[in-house]
């Protein structure tokens, strides 16, 4: 049983709040329940967050611990004024005083602090990395049942870096499969993936950006031709819609944002740091 609920609230991906919070919590012999609330970037979302935190406080009879890295002062003010948890504002406590003292603006980044030498989670993360490498670009169909998530999309849409990020940062076993012309002709997912549809998450990309990326790899090829890229992207998105697969466009998103969105969608119970 968990002894306390801890919220990580951020108007970005929440990685800074989580790494900072976990570094502090690692000093205590406790197993808190983690609740991640990324992309709290509006007053309305802030009010929803306050309601969730306060409901937890009422249900558990204990103050939740709330780590925040909120840059928007209006959003932060809503949390500060309405939250019934123990609020630990990283930027307000540490970064803002340093900005004033140094006379410069910070990058609002925090490094990871962890003793991984005796950590089972670290070992699990290594296994996840090995799994993701073995299942990169459709190399293997073996043990797909052991995957936490399977990414699909056209070649060069961001599947490999996202898979490796999920493995390295979150310890998730992520496989990825490219959708190829043969799949489009069949108008269905690769047969090996069909039994695991619930774990599939799709990545797409704007054809113009895809063409730029592919031209860096194979200049002047049909593979990189804009017309071909438009065809592949359209077919891939149509397949995802037909199959009921959740998907997002990677065109303007960082790997961190892509991974966080996937985590919000698949909500794996086994999430490590």
Defining traits:
273 residues; alpha/beta; four-stranded parallel beta sheet; 10 helices; 14% strand; globular
Describe the structure.
With 273 residues, the protein is of the alpha/beta class. 46% of the residues lie in helices and 14% in strands. The chain is built from ten helices and eight strands. It has helices at residues 15-25, 43-60, 73-82, 90-102, 120-134, 159-170, 181-186, 207-217, 226-243, 255-266, and strands at residues 5-10, 33-37, 65-69, 86-89, 149-153, 174-178, 200-204, 246-249. A four-stranded parallel sheet has the order 2-1-3-4, with helices on both faces. It has a four-stranded parallel sheet with strand order 6-5-7-8, with helices on both faces. Helix 1 (15-25) links the parallel strand 1 (5-10) and strand 2 (33-37). The longest helix is centred in the N-terminal third of the chain and has 18 residues, at 43-60. Residues 110-114 have low confidence and may be disordered.
Summarize the structure.
The protein is an alpha/beta fold and 273 residues long.
Question: Secondary-structure map with pairings?
Answer:
Elements: E1 5-10, H1 15-25, E2 33-37, H2 43-60, E3 65-69, H3 73-82, E4 86-89, H4 90-102, H5 120-134, E5 149-153, H6 159-170, E6 174-178, H7 181-186, E7 200-204, H8 207-217, H9 226-243, E8 246-249, H10 255-266
Parallel strand pairs: 1-2, 1-3, 3-4, 5-6, 5-7, 7-8
Helix pairs in contact: 2-3, 5-6, 6-10, 8-9
């Amino acid at each position: 049983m968990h002894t306390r609920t801890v919220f990580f609230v951020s108007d970005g991906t929440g990685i800074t709040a989580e790494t900072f919070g976990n570094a502090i919590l690692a000093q205590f012999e406790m197993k808190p329940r983690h609740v991640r609330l990324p992309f709290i970037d509006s007053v309305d979302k802030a009010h929803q967050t306050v309601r969730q935190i306060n409901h937890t406080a009422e249900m558990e009879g204990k103050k939740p611990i709330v780590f925040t890295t909120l840059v928007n002062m209006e959003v932060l003010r809503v949390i500060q004024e309405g939250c019934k948890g123990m609020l630990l504002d990283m930027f307000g406590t540490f970064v803002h005083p340093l900005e004033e003292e140094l006379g410069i603006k910070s990058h609002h980044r925090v490094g990871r602090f962890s003793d991984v030498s005796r950590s089972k989670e670290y070992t699990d993360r290594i296994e996840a990395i090995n799994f993701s490498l073995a299942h990169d670009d459709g190399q293997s169909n073996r043990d797909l049942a052991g995957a936490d998530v399977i990414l699909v999309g056209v070649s060069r849409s961001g599947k490999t870096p996202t898979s490796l990020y999920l493995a390295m940062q979150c310890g998730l076993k992520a496989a990825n499969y490219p959708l190829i012309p043969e799949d489009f002709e069949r108008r269905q997912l690769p047969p090996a993936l069909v039994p695991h549809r619930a774990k599939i998450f799709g990545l797409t990309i704007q054809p113009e950006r895809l063409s730029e990326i592919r031209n860096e790899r194979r200049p002047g090829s049909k593979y990189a031709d804009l017309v071909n890229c438009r065809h592949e992207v359209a077919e891939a998105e149509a397949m995802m819609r037909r199959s009921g697969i959740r998907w997002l466009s990677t065109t303007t998103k960082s790997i961190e944002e892509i991974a966080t969105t996937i985590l919000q969608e698949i909500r794996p119970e086994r999430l490590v740091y």
